[in-house]
Amino acid sequence: MLNHLNNIKHKFSYTGQQGLPENYPIPDAVDTLFYIQRNHNCNTIVYTLDTDDSGLPNPSKPIDVYWLKYDEGKVRKELNIIQFNLAYGYRSWRINNESYQFQFLAYSDQNFFLNKDDAGTYRVYTKLDDQMIVLSNIYVYAEEFGAFPQVKFLEFFGYTVEETFPFYKKLQF
What is the pTM of this model? Predict the structure, then answer.
């Protein structure tokens, strides 16, 4: 299914500096739920399912978050405490043994849900434009202003749950 998701970002075209570059790599990590890329470089933040010994999401940390540093030869690196707490980390709430709600620490306006799809595969869902979507990836466009970049917009990529149509949403800030 991830291969289906990988093609979604290529269905939209943008001009100038804004918009997800076509040449950015697509992570191929096992159990990838979604990923985030930024305009600063092609290094990617990957969100994968973290399970316990029984195969259920780990109650204390259902999603593992880490960097794929493509500029260092596709090396996996952990997020530091600042990156986790101010940008790419999340807090989660258990709904039941197989489902979790979560929010990004840097953007708590949007709720996301970790849940199984009809085929039994874990996916991340969110509601945008009154549609439930399966999230594939997010692109963050930010401008550097000192120590903390200022986010100008986010682009959400995925597909609709009901019709499995590609989905795209740009949020300006």
Answer: 0.88
